[in-house]
Amino acid sequence: GQSLEQPSEVTAVEGAIVQINCTYQTSGFYGLSWYQQHDGGAPTFLSYNALDGLEETGRFSSFLSRSDSYGYLLLQELQMKDSASYFCAFRTTDSWGKLQFGAGTQVVVTP
Amino acid sequence: EAGVAQSPRYKIIEKRQSVAFWCNPISGHATLYWYQQILGQGPKLLIQFQNNGVVDDSQLPKDRFSAERLKGVDSTLKIQPAKLEDSAVYLCASSLGQGYNEKLFFGSGTQLSVL
């Protein structure tokens, strides 16, 4: 089957670093994406890893290891505005490439 | 650049009634998606259009849900008749198209409550 698994919630203090892990199961996919969604808001694209390794975008970094079927999103220098849900997602190669999302990780940033 | 527009923002109906949602994607985006997001879950794809053709509707409950994309631009999603379990946020998204389908742009969604 095809699935993505992430922790349901992570809590951290302002200024800290948070890592959100995503493990997945699929016979083939193009890459791993990450989206952020604030309560009541629209999901917004954060990053995409087509190849193994680390991609850095400002305070956020994303990592992919295809051999381990694993990826993560790293949030550095946490700010209150980073409190949101974060979703990993992939497009599988056995369909027309629909983007399938994990259940999401709620990040709670405390003062 | 204007984002993905959706309306209405909220809708409350009784079970067995009908409802329709409208979406206007970003200009020039060939691919349009409708996702259903139940509270506490990730978005689930209902239907994906490439221009005005359907490329994936495998998870669309076709006995009650229908969707169309007029002239490859605007789209409407309809539920008839609604069930209690249809209560969710319906998100429309668009992307440039083949080769650029990793970055989806989402609208603010329509929150549907079925009583």
Topology:
The complex is a heterodimer of chains A (111) and B (115).
Chain A: E1 3-5, E2 9-13, E3 18-25, E4 29-37, E5 44-49, E6 53-57, E7 60-65, E8 70-75, E9 84-92, E10 99-101, E11 105-110
Parallel strand pairs in A: 2-11
Antiparallel strand pairs in A: 1-3, 3-8, 4-5, 4-9, 6-7, 7-8, 9-10, 9-11
Chain B: E1 5-7, E2 10-13, E3 19-24, E4 31-37, E5 44-50, E6 53-56, E7 65-69, E8 75-79, E9 88-95, E10 105-106, E11 110-114
Parallel strand pairs in B: 2-11
Antiparallel strand pairs in B: 1-3, 3-8, 4-5, 4-9, 5-6, 7-8, 9-10, 9-11
State the main characteristics.
heterodimer, A: 111 residues, mainly beta, 6-stranded mixed beta sheet, 5-stranded antiparallel beta sheet, 11 strands, globular, B: 115 residues, 7-stranded mixed beta sheet, 4-stranded antiparallel beta sheet
Biggest sheet of chain B: strands, sense, closure? 7 strands, mixed
Low-pLDDT sequence parts of chain B: none
Q: Kindly estimate the percentage of residues of chain B that lie in beta strands according to DSSP.
A: over 45%
- The proportion of residues forming helix of chain B, as a percent range, comes to under 10%
Computed over alpha carbons, the radius of gyration of chain B is: 13 Å
* Helicity level of chain A: under 10%
For the termini of chain A, the CA-CA separation is: 41 Å
- Describe the main β-sheet of chain A briefly: 6 strands, mixed
